[in-house]
Amino acid sequence: MIIKASYSNTPVWRDVHVHSILPEELRPLEEIAHNLWWVWNEEAKDIFDLLDYEEYEKCGKNPVALLQNLRTEKTEEILKNADLMARIGRLHQSYKNYIGTPFDADRPSIAYFSMEYGLSHALKIYSGGLGVLAGDYLKEASDSRVDMTAVGFLYRHGYFTQTLSVDGQQIANYEAQNFGSLPITQVLDEHNKPVVLEVPFHDRTIYSNIWKVSVGRIQLYLMDTDLEHNSEYDRSIT
Question: Rounded distance, CA 96 to CA 32, Å?
Fold first, then answer.
């Protein structure tokens, strides 16, 4: 007799992410939050700060996470604030005017490569001055209407948070970034499947997902090697 084992009592775990659904009147803020243009626009930063100051601080001044966590009562409060809604409308129009201005056709196109880009604390893909410099190049290229495309890496853990033990020793805490709450968009193919880049390297192929970051008018493409196709060693690249 063959007895088949039953696994009906074995738990099946799935990740479930719950986010707030913004009303139509506030959808322009989602569009702005997903473009790092807000990083160097003081009015945009002021408005995100006014939506929910405590939550904005709590999520590290990341407007994407802020809008995902915006409570219903806060949303209703914002909608009733005529002055704030008017500011949001003007900000969105300013954003559309900026993005809608074409590149300077008299300037050459540029491909820019860097290991890190310091654009915002909300996107932890840099660690020092060279990263900040690379980020500033992208911002300046956007403002100057230079047709630039940038390439880099999307690091899963970003940089560590430092704490001290009771005996004064430094402890490095690495917390994985939640890609679903970052101002990034995964690049998909015509079948709505993630694009996988194949990079020949020595005696093997390294596979990478591609994520897009909008930096004003500039597009930054980030490689992510944390895929099952790769060895543990290659997954650790990012």
Answer: 9
Neighbours of 217 (CB within 10 A): 22
pTM value? Answer: 0.86
Q: How far apart are alpha carbons 210 and 224 in whole angstroms?
A: 6
Q: Beta-carbon neighbour count of residue 37 at 10 Å?
A: 22
Is residue 198 within 8 Å of 227, Cβ to Cβ? Answer: no
Give me the residues paired with residue 221 across strands. Answer: 151, 212
Residues 60 and 48: beta-carbon distance below 8 Å: no
How many CA atoms lie within 13 Å of 121's alpha carbon, on the beta-carbon side? 10
**Residue owning tokens 């559309």:** 96
Task: Compute the mean pLDDT over every residue in the chain, rounded to the nearest whole number.
Answer: 90
Q: What is the pLDDT of residues 56-103, one digit of tens each?
A: 999 999 999 999 999 999 999 999 999 999 999 999 999 999 999 999
pLDDT tens-place string over residues 181-225 = 999 999 999 999 999 999 999 999 999 999 999 999 999 999 999
